[in-house]
Amino acid sequence: MISILDLRARIGAGSLTPRGAIDLCREAIAARDPAIGAFVALDPDPAIPDEGPLAGIAVGLKDIIDTAGLPTQMGSAIYEGWRPRADAAVASRLKALGAVTLAKTTTTAFASLDPTETRNPHDPGHTPGGSSAGSAAAVGGGMLPLAFGTQTGGSVIRPASFCGCAAIKPSFRLIPTVGVKTYSWALDTVGLFAAGVGDLAYALAAVTGREGIETEAASAPRIALVRQDFAQAPEPAAEAALLRAAEAAGRAGARLVDIALPPELASAWARHPEIQDFEARQALGWEFTEHGEALPPRIREHLEAGGRITAADYDDARRHAHRARRVLKALFEEVDVLLTYSAPGPAPATLASTGDARFNRLWTLMGVPCVNVPVPGEGLPVGVQVVGRFGGDGRTLAVAKLIEDALRR
After folding, report:
1. Where do the structural domains in the chain lie, given as residue ranges?
2. Which residues lie within the region annotated Disordered (predicted)?
């Protein structure tokens, strides 16, 4: 994979120019993307700034994020060829930092469940995940150093686990969603994919203007091992990855404890789909009403289900979520982070499904930061998920970096 920190170090040392760094990505895309299919559009002649903390960094943006210079087609024939007049807030920020928004990456239709044609960079017969399929595959396949996606259920952390790259779903609204096609306004969160946790921390600090994003964990961080029993058991590979990560963290000085999540969190987890589908039916109301026949089957099914959810049921689900957030906040008084599964197992051997988000959706609903850390091993990639308190993105990244470093040693 291509590291942001490595590129920036080489540019700083004068051994690589920003244009040279962009050309490296262009060459990698030309060589690898025909077998992966991570991109829907490439800028043939982008402006390449020489200055800025992200100068020389080529970025991919999920194709629900508006870009004035490239089409934004939402993974749907309804928007084929559509070009926004303005960049989304995050795209504008990236350009101000010197980054090159080189590509639009594939997304499932409106960031839902109907798969893209993108293949997993580690095995073309396996899904790359969804809905941020292209962003995960572009980074995991060594074609871009940085890509952006969104998560409503598990669409950042799960594909990162399947494609073997690091990723963060930040605290809710840390990155603005202005100019991002909404699926669920209470859940949608813009996230980042990169080669390693240090790369994530560097990019997130730049994009959010928060120079204090930590990269070093406090000594002996308190880590709670969480298995989310209400979400059913994972595959053996996911359990093995969790144990390897926990053992590595222990060797690095972390204090670990196994905990069962309080019942309020299980209740909120069960109600995530009601919030998601109720809001999606309104957010995509025009598309459903005017172009329902053009929608692929799975998103159409979810929008139909959303129309059957009453406002009373939606409000009740939101109350359960609010109670769960209070309970989770109290839990973080006792520990620094939670360590759990990123996905049920490696990427399934199919292109007809994007995988299961059951180990992700609670944390999206809670609005807390989550980091995928790849766990080295045999076969297809498997990651673990480090979950922190709301607003504690720096600490979450710092503990994730400690685990990543310990696994590499």
Report:
1. 4-208
2. 113-136
